[in-house]
Predict the structure.
Amino acid sequence: MRSTYFQIILFSVLFPALLGCSNHSPISNRDIYEIKINNKTSHAEVAFTQKSRTMGLMFRDTLDKDHGMLFVYPQEQNLSFWMKNTKIPLSIAFINSKGVIIQIDSMAPYSLMSHTSKEKVKYALEMELGWFRKNGINVGNKIEFSPEIINIKTE
């Protein structure tokens, strides 16, 4: 009798949790997507919610080779980034809604200096410091985003 009672309790607790796990957004803040720039393929974790954009790459110790974070916003605006609680030196590309890089900046770990886009942009891509230069990627280059990224519902 105890065994049956325990199984019922266990089932009633675990079943709703399992249902919740299967009901997630197609793009979570840990899903990785390919991005192409000048025939160079990189991979980016997509930050499309206010919470994931605020957290960014803070508290991370490393980035995998050719991996970064793409910040996606609902509409074009002047964006500003800093490196509070960010251990990894980064380069950031500010990208307009047409996918064109309009600015690339270098950012030092833990710096509270603001890096602000000179124009309104919809995206920002953070990669390891010097990644854009090492890969021959410059202002004016166009980024190819997957349809999943272009059609993402941002918060």
In short: The longest helix spans residues 2-21. The domain at 26-150 is CATH 2.60.120.1140 (Jelly Rolls).
